Amino acid sequence: MTLFKLGVYNIKHNFGRYFSYFISTLFSVFMLFTFFSIYFNKQIQAFSSGKVKVDTVFKAASIIVVIFSALFIWYANSFFIKSRKKEMALYSILGMKKKEIGTLLFCENMSLGILSIIIGLPLGAIASKFLLQLLVNIMKGSVSVYFTVELKAVIATTIIFVALFVFNSIKSSEIIYKFKLIELLSAEKEAEKAPEASKIMALISIVMIFSGYFIAYNNLLKGGSKMMYFGLLVLILVVVGTYILFNNFIVILLYGLKKNKKLYYKGENLISISQILYRIKANSNLLATIAVISAVAITALGFSFSFYMSLETQISYSAPFSLMYRSGDEALNNKVDKIINKHSEVKVTHKSNIVLIDGTALTPKYKGSYSKDLKAPFGVNIMSISEYNEIVNNTELTKASDGLGIVKNLKFTNDNQCFFIEMSNDTKRGRLKGEKVSCETLGKSFDLNIVDSNDKGVMGNNFQRTTIVVTDAFFKKLVDINKNSSTVIRGYSLDNSLKSEKLVTELKQIIPEDRYFDSFYSENAGAYRLLGSYVFIGMLLGILFVLSTGSILYYKQLMEAYSDKERYNVLRKIGANKREMRHMVSKQLALIFGLPLLVSLLHSSAALSVYIIKLMGTSKIVIKCTLIMAAVYIAIYLCYYMLSVKAYMKIVRSNS
User: Residues in domain ABC3 transporter permease C-terminal (predicted)?
Assistant: First the structure.
């Protein structure tokens, strides 16, 4: 029998040991091919016009899949090879040379890798049409996707994974040269050192994690030049704190259970707690890594899904009018009206001419869009209360104002009052209430009392600016002295903005760029394309992450089951029955699978709570989406847990 045939024979007759590794590598091939297929697909490239670069997003996602797949294959393969040290020693005893054993391992790894590619590529090709259609539907597109196999995607995926499998196969074949025969034979009997942990480091881990949460809540969403530094600081504190937590705090916690004599000497706890203590310490870095990866996945999925679900409300804020532009001469306005009237698929329900006066202002507590104290006058728009209320009550904002926190039905009691709209991330409703603001326009100075303030403007992305809303009477006086310097924004509300694609396309051709034309349809299409691609990528990457991390844990437990086999044989000989052994295994694996999941849920809950409170208020959508993502993660980990318990029991109870 040749070495290649022997390798194939080993895979066939021990496929249970290879199965989890094979499925995860197969899914990695499937995922990368899917992303490459989307990246090279001409229909998707058609979505990448203008500001929205969907193909760039998928290119970045493909790089993430390659990096993660490389790390996963290397990690899982190292576990698998360690579990086979005794098998390699037996080959050596039977007369096989080191070179032959190395070649055998190389053939086994390459066979699995090639099999993953051979099966993964056709599966990806079959599924790509359905996944592409799903992507188009998520992006609210109206394109019908046709079946195609992207040759570039096939070549790129094959080259990358062949390179990964060759590298790992070479590393696997080299292991036989690194150990002596006696070391390979006694690999499963290596003495375990008593776990050590520091109480000071345990305390530091808790302080670091909660300090990260505190900084995120108080500083991360303020904006400004320091936001990146705060973000990096939070990341370092939470990630490093998590590693220290698993290496120290959890170990000390288990030592505490050991000191509880009533609990420790109850039933099989005497054995199981000690076993868990050693296993947690031995796997601490792995568990911390899985906790961090899972936290990132759950947070990203919860954020993207919730933002996607509330996108229509957010788009109303970006483009309150169905159509809007900076008004020009009457000839342009008449031409626009003529084109709108020509399109029977939509009907104008309201038309506005919003007058904005340019000015400067100064008020002590205002920090501006970069959260810096503004000691010099800053630019503002001044608008009338009637036009403010007109926008809120007659545009897309009407149905979205509650979700956005827009102030409705604004009222003043005298002409020296104003409503202040801040352009800042660090603000709350009414933060500037009671303050005075000094304003100036065309040399005319005046002071106003701020009766209320908010950070939600009503002029859309193109015309959003720090704004002061004043009474109609006071605004009329300002208009009289600013007749030639005021700006008029022309806005149209349609009965169905989403049916205005043809109209928007035609208007873009006649309205000059310096008029800053924008439409609800364009903002809606762009937002759904971009966020839809994020949701799609997040969904697939989330599945990849949970399958890969679950597989790594599963593999690690199988490896430990082989090393624990003798211990359980001794327990069986002294009277432990199947139920008691299963109970011990279940408790041990419950902590191994449960602890990283629990910590990841804590991290993601903290991150998303900042998002809910700071950006969206108490949002049911965010909570609902996060709970769904967490439930899916828990369900998949529960499946891996049950498979691990079953496989673990099968190994420790087998006679061979």
Answer: 61-170
